[in-house]
Amino acid sequence: MKIKNATIKDFDTAYEYIKKLWDYNTYDYETTKEVYEKVLQDENSFAFFAIEDDGTFHGFCHGDYFQTFWMSGLTCYVSSLITNEEDRGKGYGVKLLDHAKKLAKERGCKAITLDSGLPRVQAHGFYEHYGFEKSCYGFELAL
């Protein structure tokens, strides 16, 4: 298994992961592609896949780096982390988080944060097993 940085050619694969991660949301293909392109161009963002040498994709990870007063410095926010349902428990999620953690350390981040939808109980267990601690409730306000 290796990590593959996302490219524009990978958009269709990323789009399928995005739709699965937030299956309660509705996505417009072209609008999502525009966001994906901006992520790839943003030096404060990252996006990558877990793949096999034969080109089989097993997961996707996306995040951003930003300054926070909470950590008094740079923080890495993992906003998307998903593996294929049939691949769960095989270590791909760990590999994706390990890579995000490596990138965060290289950037000088003081922490990695993420949030996870309330219904995603299995994912919560995975994050806690990895070493994350519950630290807050997440809220959003659509504009």
Question: How would you describe this structure to a colleague?
Answer:
The protein has a five-stranded mixed sheet, with helices on both faces. It has four helices and five strands; from the N terminus they run βααβββαβα. The protein has helices at 11-21, 29-41, 92-107, 121-130, and strands at residues 2-5, 45-51, 57-68, 73-83, 111-114. The protein starts with a strand and ends in a 13-residue tail after the last helix. It has one domain: 3-Layer(aba) Sandwich (Aminopeptidase). A hairpin with a 4-residue loop joins β3 and β4. Helices cover 35% and strands 27% of the residues. The chain is an alpha+beta fold. InterPro entries: Acyl_CoA_acyltransferase, GNAT_dom. Residues 1-143 form the N-acetyltransferase domain. This is GNAT family N-acetyltransferase. It comes from Anaerostipes hadrus.
Topology diagram in text:
Layout lengths: L1 E4 L5 H11 L7 H13 L3 E7 L5 E12 L4 E11 L8 H16 L3 E4 L6 H10 L13
Parallel strand pairs: 4-5
Antiparallel strand pairs: 1-2, 2-3, 3-4
